[in-house]
């Protein structure tokens, strides 16, 4: 005798269970592959500093990074033509002047 068809809810719950099982299997495979290819506790090349190693920046570098962040933040809110104008000014007069123009163009 055939089994009665499952309700929609039962089918969806079953599908979710299968998806979780597949995800669990994939995580196990990734963990074993990562454990065998990379040494334990090592960071792969190009993935940032190792844990515990403090990045030391000079005051000049910190200031340059702060300016770069401000520049990128203001540039994000501009239209393409305005971005081109700000980039051109940055080449000619520097980042501080470009930030001031970007603020003005962005209405800040």
Commentary on this structure:
- With 108 residues, the protein is mostly helical.
- It has 2 domains: 8-39; 59-106, no CATH class.
- It has 4 helices and no strands.
- It has helices spanning 8-37, 59-76, 80-93, 95-106.
- The longest helix is centred in the first third of the chain and has 30 residues, at 8-37.
- It is elongated.
How would you sum up the global shape? elongated
- Tally of individual domains: 2
Terminal residue distance: 73 Å
Estimated structural class = mainly alpha
Order of helices and strands: HHHH
**Helix proportion:** 55-70%
Q: Please, how many helices?
A: 4
Largest sheet: none
Give the beta-strand count.
Answer: 0
Mean pLDDT: 84
Strand content: under 5%
Low-confidence blocks of residues: none
Radius of gyration: 27 Å
List the helices and strands and how they pair.
Blueprint: H1 8-37, H2 59-76, H3 80-93, H4 95-106
Helix pairs in contact: 2-4, 3-4
Question: In summary, what is this structure?
Answer:
With 108 residues, this protein is an all-alpha fold. The chain has helices at 8-37, 59-76, 80-93, 95-106. It folds into two domains: 8-39; 59-106, no CATH class.
Annotation keywords:
108 residues, elongated, 0% strand, 2 domains, mainly alpha
């Amino acid at each position: 005798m055939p089994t009665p068809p499952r309700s929609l809810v039962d089918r969806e719950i079953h599908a979710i269970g299968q998806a979780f099982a597949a995800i669990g299997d994939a995580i196990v495979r990734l963990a074993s592959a990562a454990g065998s290819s990379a040494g334990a506790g090592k960071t792969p090349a190009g993935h940032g500093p190792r844990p515990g190693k403090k990045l030391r920046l000079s005051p000049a570098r910190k200031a340059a990074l702060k300016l770069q962040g401000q520049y990128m933040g203001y540039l994000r809110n501009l239209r393409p033509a305005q971005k081109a104008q700000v980039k051109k000014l940055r080449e000619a007069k520097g980042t501080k002047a470009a930030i001031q123009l970007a603020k003005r163009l962005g209405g800040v």
